[in-house]
């Protein structure tokens, strides 16, 4: 009897629960009454069309795309439309005929066909108007036909077909025609007659797709299938639409930016990293003005999506109520199942539309900001170029731009989660009453914790970015100057410096990642904590409060939404916090072009003046020479004229176009012709004259492809003289009015220099009649110039003609007196960057390689091995454990919900609460452990792979750097490394989490409703098939995107280095067009990739919604055998399956897309490498070489297998301590001797012996550490003066000061802030070329080895300093073997012997008197130099 009472109480409790909601059920029944449905059938489609038509006609009026010719599709639509009109008219006539015949008719039979008739006439008119306005597929009419179809189905389902034959047939035919129209709406018409699409070889199919195709992204399917059948190539991708092109987007943002900038900062002129608060928000304001409509449309889609998101818990509540009521009719259950399915589908479609709109916005925004950054790089002031480096700019466009994009993408995360939380708390209050308030307290605590974490994490992220910038700057400098590093054997030193910075970067990443792990766990824990607190308070505060299935699992569904909101908010805040940092780094402004009267100039407004009281009046057509000692301000004067310096006082003006030849030649990675023409119209006769005058004809004759031969980056495959002449030819070809020439003769041989002066610069040259300002140390040409300016200490010391200055007997006369003897002897050849002209090939550099096919499994194994086997096994085990605990927690809650109600209460509530809480804690611990271990493994893998990439690149020979564009390498060291650091570990963590979550969901559904397996298994097959289709295309698109990114980096890097030349030539527009073209090529690959993501997500989620329907349908079917708790557990898990399935596949495909970064970082593992740096057993002591004897035995050198020998059968012997001068014309092979001696390229035949040891048997670093070379191009690295002088930290400060004193730099360094700790900028741009050359000499004095190789070591210093330096070298290296490539022929006249090279062979070798007596090649060179 007690058992019976208990059962009765249970039934009574359930009955009361059902009665409490009876009002809701009655309301639903009223909603779906036949009368109301008939009204909906009659009015809803028509009301929709009549309301939307005026707006749509207005849209068509202002969006005319051109008319479409009558197609079969249009004709069929019109025929069907007129047929429907005829049927409606017939229905009206028949009804009137019946009434006239005396048969009473219901008004419905007259009103409804009349409404339909009028609406069908409007439809036909719309179809015609759309054709005239070029609409290929009508979304408005698709929705109308869809509503009509639903209405007809509802009418037939409720009332059935009319009984009388006529109305039966009319209804039947109308239904069929409406169905046909709906099917036709899925199709798209041909493009408009005058559409640009007709002229496009491969237009994007989106514009012509139908609404269903656009909603589900099926217009992308053709490309997916094409990518599955064969690897995609760039030519397979669609053309970029105008709305996504750089030309359209960048101009809009630049226009708004300038407008806002002028309004906010009318007086700002120079700020690369502005710190004003208003300035930081400037970029966001400009972005908002350009992209606000797109942003608002995406936001609207998200709001509609959220309406359906919150409808699902309500529908689930009704469904569980149905499951709990044993007497409820089955149709209600199936109806709720369909409703769940439709709501989930609509949520999916609107959410993916929102994501698509925002992804396209991100793409456009990336285009705009990257273009804006490039334009600002073009106008970057000299002062800011000294404080920035190429690597930092690459970081801006690779990392900071992406962060800004993410911030815009998640901008809605600031307010939308608040709305979600409000709605969720309202629902929870309805379910659980006041106990829902406890959720607010829990979330407030968690939010406070996460705000603290976010703030602390932002500190670590900023620290990481500082390390990243420092690493990027140093890496860029190392890659650009790899020749110098290899010549000195410094690879390991710089590798350690980079890795040291990298360790600091990864430590900051670990600290940030640890905090992020705590934050993530708190998000995951919040679902459990809120559920635990609410259920515990609800159940324990009042015994009458029972926790049934509806309360438990509807509350869990709401909490999941709430948890997403709570996770979304801090993540969005954290992302938004990146905006000021990214924007501050992206905000770049330029300075106005300025220039000369009473001028005072400085490198920046904050620094002291470098030029003072400059007065300069240059008559049109005159030739001015600027002379002075090192650091006197000669190059600064030209920079001032170019507007590269900040004008503090005075007035500057230059009339006419300007051409500029910098002291350090800037060469593009392009053909000879493209370098000379520099974007101007090709004038072949003038080009021939320029090449002849610049003495480039002999060089071109030796190039395999002649004028079409490709030049490597920075002219790496040209000699210094060739680079300088090419730079000069570029200026001459322009036919400018004003020529600013910064010591172009310094890098040229004597005869070539004289030829250049006579045929180009001098009074009888091509530039006669042009205004020329020539900075020079060549005093022998001064009598031929019109005017001479003598610079000293940043001011004009003297000015006048040659004769006037001599008569004054002042500074100029003193300058000449120090170098009277060798005033005619200027000539040089430079150390070639591993190249004489003879070895060049037409095509030199290689583009970034594109891999094809699916990602190889070995890449995953390589990554996992880098992470460590122990970590990998630990991750899988911990994920498995925490998912088992998660399943146990859900199952325990279902048992709790199914506990019988006895006397209005549930038994064992305390036990249920305790175990539920304990399981949640175990899950939280497991979650933290799994994420933390993945993070540690990711950091370890990233470090090892980065180290491997660095080692592979450093061990590559110099030919590798010739053939590999710098952008390819920077792409790997910046963007791909960033993916390794942040993206891949996150995707691994996400994939494993969702994979185990998916297994849990499938297990729950199949165990609860075994029949669901019939649908689940085919769905899994569809998922796998779709994933295979997607991955094949997506991976290739990711590769194409990565490959197309490298040219952008190369171009930005090249522009940064040559911005002064570009501005001087006024070629900014040309370079902007080139950059925009590269960005468009990149976005051409990016756009299909983002569409691929949306295609996958939409279709995956739609398939997942079928699983929700399956679980609900079979729950209704198996209702008698299932408890409400189990059903609630099953459905609540099924509701998560859409998101879990989507993100599981998405994480996997994202992982596969990004694992390409591992592939690209390992690209160079199999490239040819240099000989070993050190050999353990070579029998060489530390004192080798003790004498410095060098012997060539039948030595031959070939630069590449397909090229001729550069050195042929050299046999000669250089005695210990001997001083040998090396002379010869350009291309004779002088610099090849340097390359041979230091083994930058291995011998083709024969060998070289130093002190009797074959150098091929010596480790490269051992060899190179024993030879000191002073190249012509002075290279300094980012870092202190001390670091640049003593890289290995082997010398004391006293020794360093001594070396500086010897090279006349001690007083200069003492005057610098920080002295020896003064920071040199990248490439040493904050020092003059002469000062850098002297620092390199000081470095050699400190190094002091038994063999010294001087290659144009004093090319950039004045004659007076040259004499002093030569005396120092003779004194300090008296007991060393010194090889000197002649700079001034007078220099080598003091040598013991002179080696004369000609065409790669030894032409003459002997003492100077002997060679002069032979009257051979050396005699001719001496005659040309004026020595005899």
From TrEMBL:
GO molecular function, one term: ATP binding
Catalytic activity: leukotriene C4(in) + ATP + H2O = leukotriene C4(out) + ADP + phosphate + H(+)
Pfam family, one: ABC_tran
Enzyme class: translocase
Record's keyword terms, sorted: ATP-binding, Glycoprotein, Membrane, Nucleotide-binding, Phosphoprotein, Repeat, Translocase, Transmembrane, Transmembrane helix, Transport
Membrane topology: Multi-pass membrane protein
Protein name: ATP-binding cassette sub-family C member 6
Protein species of origin: Vombatus ursinus (Common wombat)
